[in-house]
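stage 2 :: seqdesign
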């Protein structure tokens, strides 16, 4: 019974992030902007950041997608705001491992740790990682102002 209550809590947190996403919108003064499109399901996410001395000073996301994609983007913004690019990269790698079902300590991901159940649904992994992949592009190419891509299977 306790596991069932924990699953309900996780679902409620995911639904809350999906219905009332944090850092949703656009940044007027973003330094980088990445748009990714998942053609398999139609999810589109744009992640914008304001960097100062390689620190994510502000972050926002926009676009449209399923509840997992939206919740994950919301959770990602909460987890990485105020972090250095190196710290954000570590969190992104940790999240990727988590949703692939690897045994990790996901405490640093904050609410993002609650998406561990995505590992049971391989088709949803791309939904959960879309915003994180956009962040990865920003981290890999901090000098590129705008980037747009359709992710491949």
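stage 2 :: out
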């Amino acid at each position: 019974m306790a596991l069932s209550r924990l699953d309900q809590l996780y679902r409620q947190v995911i639904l809350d992030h999906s219905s009332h996403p944090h850092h949703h919108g656009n940044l007027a003064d973003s330094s980088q902007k990445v748009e990714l499109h998942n053609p398999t399901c139609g999810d589109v996410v744009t992640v914008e950041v304001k960097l100062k001395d390689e620190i994510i000073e502000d972050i926002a996301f926009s676009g449209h997608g399923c509840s997992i994609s939206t919740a994950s983007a919301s959770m990602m913004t909460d987890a990485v705001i105020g972090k250095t690019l190196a710290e954000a990269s570590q969190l992104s790698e940790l999240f990727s491992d988590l949703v692939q079902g690897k045994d990790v300590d996901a405490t640093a991901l904050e609410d993002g740790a609650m998406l561990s159940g995505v590992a049971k649904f391989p088709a949803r992994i791309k939904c959960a990682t879309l915003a994180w992949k956009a962040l990865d592009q920003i981290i890999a190419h901090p000098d590129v102002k705008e980037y747009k891509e359709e992710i491949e299977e």
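stage 3 :: structure notes
- The two ends are 38 Å apart (CA to CA).
- The first strand starts at residue 32 and ends at 37.
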